[in-house]
Amino acid sequence: MKSILGVLVLVPLMEAFAVAQEPTADAKEGKFYLEGGLGFGVMTMAGPSTASKGFDSIAEFAAGFGAQYGITDQVSVFTKLGLGVGIDDDPGVFTFGMTFDGAFKIVEKKGDTAALSAYAGLGFLRLDVDPKGAPSDDATDFVFELGVQGDFGPADGTWSLQPFFQIQLVGGPRPFKGYNGVLQIAGGAKLLYKLSDNLYLEPSITFQGGNFSDSVVFGIGIQLRL
């Protein structure tokens, strides 16, 4: 049962990363983009062998933070960190992780034309699983990710829709036991709504699936451009 629960705890963290996706697909040279958000959702996962049914659902909470800097109008770097908590007392689960990425703007936004960026990076993931009636287990493993993100919206910048698609691979033998890694695929969209010259409200929805679980998370965040 512990091996299964160890894999499941990946999902809240990856959702937290999704809450703090690449801040903008149309980053500009010399600009900083800062954002943070909270997410709530539900994941459906394979249950332990002792469960009477094959699948269980559990509520989840996620928080994510991100920062991006435009080196040029076409190349930017960014980092994001996230934490996730499975809202259940058996097991108690907590995750924390961080990634460092580079982004390349494939299509530049001009007027009402949509922008498109691709990104890839590496990071780490800390897992902590605390099941009832069994010893707790924890591990730190590497994360590799790659994805694309678009930016659709009017030229005046009052709002923009940012769909994204991302793949994350987490390697390492612990605490997975029978697994050599976990592959998760996420897709969704954010809507940025301009509140002031440099401040944007950012509601989002993220769908995620992989070789062990599926989930949906609704998020709300703020983006600050400096």
Explain the layout of strands and helices.
Blueprint (H helix, E strand, L loop, with lengths): L1 H7 L1 H10 L12 E15 L8 E16 L4 E13 L4 E16 L7 E16 L6 E15 L7 E13 L9 E14 L4 E12 L2 E13 L1
Antiparallel strand pairs: 1-2, 1-10, 2-3, 3-4, 4-5, 5-6, 6-7, 7-8, 8-9, 9-10
What does it look like?
The structure is a single chain. It is elongated, with a radius of gyration of 18 Å. The N terminus is likely disordered. Helix content is 8%, strand content 63%. A ten-stranded antiparallel beta barrel has the order 1-2-3-4-5-6-7-8-9-10. A hairpin with a 7-residue loop joins strand 6 and strand 7. It has one domain: Lipocalin, CATH 2.40.128.130. With 226 residues, it is mainly β. The longest helix is centred in the N-terminal third of the chain and has 10 residues. The protein is built from two helices and ten strands, in the order ααββββββββββ.
Q: Which ranges are low-confidence, i.e. pLDDT below 50, for 5 or more consecutive residues?
A: 1-12, 47-54
Count of helical stretches = 2
CATH architecture, please?
A: Beta Barrel
Gyration radius, in Å: 18 Å
Structural class: mainly beta
Note the main sheet. 10 strands, antiparallel, barrel
- Multimeric status of the protein: single chain
Q: How far do the termini sit from each other? A: 47 Å
Mean pLDDT, all residues: 77
Q: What is the number of independent domains?
A: 1
What do we call the CATH homologous superfamily? Autotransporter beta-domain
